[in-house]
Design a protein that fits this description.
Length: 172
């Protein structure tokens, strides 16, 4: 029995490696994906600005630090009530999923953060869509749309954005 487990332990990495892996993310590859999502996107150095469902999205990368961030401005944070702040913190725990609410420079943002090189196409597209969804659902569901608990129509409507963007990036 021990010999079988040892053999399987040596075979497993080879089997996993035989699957086709995505290449590491690069700025040209990210630009190609961004332009598939919004052909009118603006590319500037290591950053991008695009619009998804009338929501402005900013993407900032730092290849040297191996980080990227997609951001959507939501509203002024300076006039948020303690109850509103509590609600976004609750959403960060259970319904924002890969996107998060964050405060910087007096502004409430929807953000998606990820290591740059390890970012896969579908993770990136889903992260951008989830960030747009937390902005769109601020004040109501506070949800990324990637997972919904309970019944209702909202989950399907929010999931539609993720599916639509994943389809746009399919050929890249």
């Amino acid at each position: 029995m021990i010999r079988i487990l040892v053999v399987l332990a040596f075979l497993l990495p080879a089997a996993v490696q035989s699957q086709e892996a995505e290449p590491p993310m690069t700025l040209p590859r990210m630009a190609e994906i961004v332009l598939a999502l919004d052909p009118e996107a603006q590319l500037a150095g290591a950053g991008f600005s695009l619009t998804i469902d009338d929501i402005p999205v900013l993407i900032v990368t730092d290849v040297g630090a191996n980080r990227m961030r997609a951001m959507v401005p939501i509203r002024s944070a300076e006039t948020m009530t303690p109850e509103e702040m509590r609600r976004v913190m609750q959403a960060n725990f259970d319904s924002a999923l890969d996107a998060r609410y964050a405060v910087a420079g007096g502004q409430l943002w929807g953000v998606f953060l990820h290591p740059f090189k390890e970012l896969e196409r579908n993770q990136f597209i889903s992260g951008v869509a989830q960030t747009v969804n937390v902005a769109k659902t601020y004040g109501s569901l506070y949800s990324s749309g990637a997972g919904q608990f309970g019944a209702g129509d909202s989950g399907d409507l929010q999931r539609e954005l993720i599916e639509r963007l994943l389809e746009k990036g399919q050929d890249i």
